[in-house]
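Input record (one chain):
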Amino acid sequence: MKRYLSLLMLLFLVACSTEQPQTITELFERPDCSGKCYVNMPCEGQEVVLEVYLTGSNVLANGPRILFMRDPDDIYKTIQINFDESINTEMIKKIDDEFDQTVYLRGLISGYDLLNAEFCKRAHIVTIQSNEDIWFEK
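The corresponding structure, as predicted from the sequence alone:
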């Protein structure tokens, strides 16, 4: 019985640690990320792997360490990506310049309130910590 419980616990830990890549739209639609202003959402502080297809027009640079990435299928779904100082700026530039490939970004989710004259909603930033958290696939 003890072996059975140990095996079950190990399988549970492995299953929970497996990160499935998510598109920008999938991140927007996560119930634990969607919410009202002034409320921290449960997804904040969690790690996510974003999968973004680069079209050549869905990445906007905002300085050397911040990119805004749009979902290629829905330009209204845009997320801010912040890059730690330790990340090579050439890698960030490559993301901005590439097209017709997929980039994967592993980072931590944080939130902020997005206010305008008509509404307020919770928006998110993904912060990338190291060069190893960025990879490409054709």
